[in-house]
Write a structure and sequence with these properties.
The protein is α/β, with parallel strands linked by helices. The chain has one domain: Ribonuclease Z/Hydroxyacylglutathione hydrolase-like (Metallo-beta-lactamase, Chain A, 4-Layer Sandwich). 37% of the residues lie in helices and 24% in strands. It contains 9 helices and 13 strands. Strands 1-2-3-4-5-6-7-8 form an 8-stranded mixed β-sheet. Strands 9-10-11-12-13 form a 5-stranded mixed β-sheet, with helices on one face. The longest helix is centred in the C-terminal third of the chain and has 24 residues.
Length: 305
Amino acid sequence: MLKIIILSILSLFSNIVFADASLKVHKVDNNVYALVGELSQRSKDNLANNSTHGVIVTDEGVILIDSGGSYLGARQIHKVIQGITDKPLKIVINTGGQDHRWLGNDYFLQLGARIIASSTAQDDQKARADSQMSQLDNLIGESLQNTKPVFAIEVFDSKKYIELGSVKLELHHFGPAHTAGDIVVWMPNKQIMFTGDIVFNNRMLGIGPAKNFQSWINVFEKMASFEPSHIIPGHGDPSNLQEATINTYQYLVFLKSKIAGILDNDGDMQDALKIDQSDFNYLKNHESIAGKNAQWVFEQMEFSY
């Protein structure tokens, strides 16, 4: 019995290569890694890296998906990458306009990296930079030191192909999801999808700041049509498509269905706040976000249903 328990524990952690501070490194495939941050709020200890980031090691250098939530957060990510490979960092892709997707850009730009995002994400970065910096100042304090908002430099509208060494990637912007400019990064030869905030694993998603749940549902469906074997999400652990669907897509569809039922019966916001979301209580932070999600979906559907 003890042997079975030990083997189960070893199996559980077999894909965790090592951990550095608040980042755990999961090897997803040869030369492909997920850096998994904490599921809680941004803090001075996690350096605003309460998020998941992707790393691809090529024969010509490293591609990083999402640069971290601060200058020190970017430095932490770089330190973890240096524990994986000694190859230089060549490309940074911002999958959206949320702070931990791009506020580490300055650090990596100083290393000579290309910084790429959708044009909508760049607009979002510019529009929310001041408010994000102010919020982070309250949340992480001194850990925000040296952080300077540097917007993505190379932008695209709906699709972009990039290549480094033998690695070819497709970048797709299908529309707003968690933020207006969210994209997916598709690695076709390995069937790996980096989704940014289009997928939340292990923790409950928040409808905002794009506040367009229907577009998020549509974007997820387009992402899922690629039938990825592995998903590296914006939050939480890497997974297969089925798990990502349960944690993100099914939750959005659940809220839409429940709110539609309330509106069909001439219900109001108070009814929305009473929706039983206990089936999703396994997702971290559900206590603080579930009610807000119901409120946001109700507000969107009330005048368009």
